[in-house]
Amino acid sequence: MPESSPETHVIDFRAAEQLLEARDPRGAIRLLDSVITAHPENTAARLLRARAFFLAAQLRPAELEFQIVLEREPDNAFAHFALGRTLERGGRVDEALRHFRLAAALEPRPDFLRAARFAQGDTGNGEHAP
To answer: What is the 3-state secondary structure (H, E, C) of the chain?
Structure first.
């Protein structure tokens, strides 16, 4: 196996983005594991891995990764939104609502606003991938 370097970690990160786009979250997770092991402080890699866990229906690991991102970046609207989706998918709607509202308050994008209203009982179509 070739030796890891910062360059190979960048290549692995970019390849993981492409795998996630191609709907191969498990492949993305495998690549990101080595990146995060070498660079545990890399919030972008953790956020990408959290999205991959979500798409692979690994809700607990996704939740943990989103929480780590939010500990480092409490004003990350997307991380709040994605954590809300993760909690919602796991049946924890009350907890999800808090994160949907935070996401909408931090960045009033239409999808964040819809999620906050949907969680309050308005109409919506439910699940969306983060």
So the answer is: CCCCCHHHHHHHHHHHHHHHHCCCHHHHHHHHHHHHHHCCCCHHHHHHHHHHHHHCCCHHHHHHHHHHHHHHCCCCHHHHHHHHHHHHHCCCHHHHHHHHHHHHHHCCCHHHHHHHHHHCCCCCCCCCCC
Say if CB 55 and CB 129 are below 8 A apart.
yes
pLDDT at 68 (0 to 100)? 98
Mean pLDDT of 61-77: 98
DSSP state, residue 121:
T
